[in-house]
Amino acid sequence: MVTRFGQLGFVIVILLVLVGLFSVVTRFAMTIKSLTNPEFVVTEPEGSPVGPEFNQRYVDHPAWTLVHVVAGFFFMTLGPLQFVVRVRNRWPRFHRWCGRLFLLASVVGVVSALAFVSVLPLFGSFSTRVAVIFASILFCIALWQGYRTARARNFVRHREWMIRVFAIGLGISTFRVLIPLLMVCGATFVEAWDSVVWLGFGINAVVAETWINMTRN
Which residues contact 131 (CB under 8 A, 6 or more apart)? Predict the structure, then answer.
């Protein structure tokens, strides 16, 4: 049962990673386009529930946006590799260097996310800001514990903390999946955004703890 659950979970993780990478690539392309074309104006397709002001915020702060999305790219691409047992066992040096780059990308990503709270006007209500700060604090705690346990060569606990790190970070993708589901249920985009920022991080954290407890022995 654990094996099947793990296989299903890994497939879901890869799908969420693809969602995250799609967001990273589109955000990166939009930012570069705005930098190379001074007359660039953010537009949305007719009938889209997302107003142009949502994406315009990122265009107005290109430096922070590029820092965040580049860090997100390395987080999304290196994260799954860290949990592939075959890679860890066959190429331990590659695993260690990927882990260091993943750690750096995680630090840069969470710092730029926190900077967005003050620099970039977050879409939604005050609840959205609280959710971002709360999730960032949990992310930083898990990241520090993951680093500390690796240095102490306590690889059992290191694995558990890094699962938490990746799960919380992958919440970015989870709430992009949840937004259309809530909107189908009648929520506006703003209402859905306020809700999924909490739900995305929360659901992932619960799933991570469940998996850690299922595989701890």
Answer: 197, 198, 201
Give the separation between CA 25 and CA 70, rounded to whole angstroms: 9
Q: Please name the helix (run of DSSP H) or strand (run of DSSP E) that holds residue 136, with its range, or none.
A: helix 126-151
Nearest CA among 60, 160, 53 for reference residue 116: 60
Which whole-number Å values give the CA distances from 156 to 15, 70, 152, 163, 168, in the listed order?
Answer: 26, 30, 11, 11, 19
Residues 6+ apart with CB under 8 A from 7: none
The gap between the terminal CA atoms of the chain, to the nearest Å, is: 15
Distance, CA of 197 to CA of 191 (rounded, Å): 10
Residues with Cβ within 8 Å of 135's Cβ and at least 6 positions away in sequence, in order, are 168, 171, 197, 201
Cβ neighbours, 10 Å, residue 135: 23
CA-CA-CA-CA torsion for 26, 31, 32, 38, nearest 10 degrees? 140
Q: What is the pLDDT of residue 50?
A: 65
Residue 112's contacts (CB-CB under 8 Å, 6 or more residues apart) are: 64, 67, 68, 71
What is the pTM for the complete model shown? 0.87
Distances (CA, A) of 195 to 33, 76, 122, 124, 182: 31, 23, 14, 9, 9
Note the pLDDT of residue 69.
92
Name 55's Cβ contacts closer than 8 Å, sequence gap at least 6: 30, 42, 44
Query: Is residue 121 scored above 80 in pLDDT?
Result: no
